[in-house]
Amino acid sequence: MTTEIRIGLVTVSDRASRGDYVDRGGPAMLERLQHRISPPWSPIMRVIPDDRPLIVSTLIELCDAERCCLVVTTGGTGPSLRDVTPEATESVVDKLLPGFGELMRQVSLRAVPTAILSRQTAGIRGNSLIVNLPGKPTAIAECLDAVLPAIPYCIDLIDGPRLELLGDIIAFRPTNMTAGPLP
């Protein structure tokens, strides 16, 4: 019996959730991941406002009820008062993975000096990895490409499905890892 692989994609934006403008972050994440992750998977997409309780409930739903092995958010990682995605993420995870945010900021700083203001983070909730990305589509691509090599092995370690990467990005796994389940 094969379990369907699900990946949650959440756009956090007051304006996009109201329909003031078309969400570009969610489609940018979807397009990037569709060309990078194998085997086939199903996206579970949400567009929600910058509302901490709603972000919390959405992350919990995607991890616990929808059983997404990976939940990627875009938006709400800046310093403005409405930017609360990292706080919502930190409140639902069992373990923080600060290296994800450190790497994403390092990559973004090569393109724009204001990347120092970004507060991306990541963490584990049960068998799900949650990763917060910035909101701009070009930054989404840069940051996702930077952290993707670590995602399949992280999901292995939390007893998620085995993911492989496609294209020019290679997943890191220790050399003694086999294609089977972890011991």
Task: Give your account of this protein's structure.
There is one protein chain. The chain is of the alpha/beta class and 183 residues long. The protein has one domain: MoaB/Mog-like domain (Molybdenum Cofactor Biosythetic Enzyme, Chain A, 3-Layer(aba) Sandwich), CATH 3.40.980. The protein is 37% helix and 19% strand. It contains seven helices and eight strands; from the N terminus they run E-H-H-E-E-H-E-H-E-H-E-E-H-H-E. The chain has a six-stranded mixed beta sheet with strand order 3-1-4-7-6-5, sandwiched between helices. The chain starts with 5 loop residues before the first strand and ends in an 18-residue tail after the last strand.
Number of separate strands: 8
What is the multimeric organization of the chains shown? single chain
CATH class: Alpha Beta
Compute the number of helices: 7
The largest sheet, given as strand count, sense and whether it forms a barrel, is: 6 strands, mixed
Q: Quote the CATH topology.
A: Molybdenum Cofactor Biosythetic Enzyme, Chain A
CATH homologous superfamily descriptor: MoaB/Mog-like domain
Tell me the span between the first and last alpha carbons: 20 Å
Number of domains: 1
Shape: globular
Mean pLDDT: 93
Order of helices and strands: EHHEEHEHEHEEHHE
Which residue ranges are poorly predicted, with pLDDT under 50 across at least 5 consecutive positions? Answer: none
Structural class: alpha/beta
Beta-strand percent range: 15-25%
Using only C-alpha atoms, the radius of gyration works out to 15 Å
CATH architecture tag: 3-Layer(aba) Sandwich
Helix content: 25-40%
Strand order of the largest sheet: 3-1-4-7-6-5
